[in-house]
Amino acid sequence: xxxxEWRKYFYYKSYVEKGDIKMTHNCKIxxxxxxxxxxxxxxxxITGFANCGINxxxxxxxxxxxxxxxxxxxxxxxxxxxxxxxxxxxxxxTLFGILDVxxxxxxxxxxxxxDEEELFDYGYLDGMQVKIEVLRIDFDFQ
Length: 142
Fold this sequence. Notes:
Layout: E1 4-9, E2 12-17, E3 24-33, E4 36-41, E5 44-49, E6 61-69, E7 73-76, E8 83-86, E9 93-100, E10 105-107, E11 112-113, E12 129-134, E13 136-141
Antiparallel strand pairs: 1-2, 3-4, 3-6, 4-5, 6-13, 7-12, 8-9, 9-10, 9-12, 10-11
């Protein structure tokens, strides 16, 4: 358990393992429509894409790895805002929180891992309030 930092938020657990960063959350499956899956993590509902398929049932509790898909638009944001906003009925989201560049994490109502390559030009935003626009949130169920 060395190099593992445990944290609890609301009703879910996530862990960050140094080197290979993973964000795993305990969730409840709310809806499944082919690859489109809606889950609840604590009081937060997220609809994303299960690109590896899903062999779970609605109402089931399970562990899920959450990742942000494709090019991210990261901008400094002037307000203290910690939330996740879905854009209409698409897979697109705007995420608000604090950017932790060293650990490649967005600290929000749910922490999100970010590919280190995506953060190459954003070191100046470390520890600052940001807004991140993503094309899709992907789920990988365990």
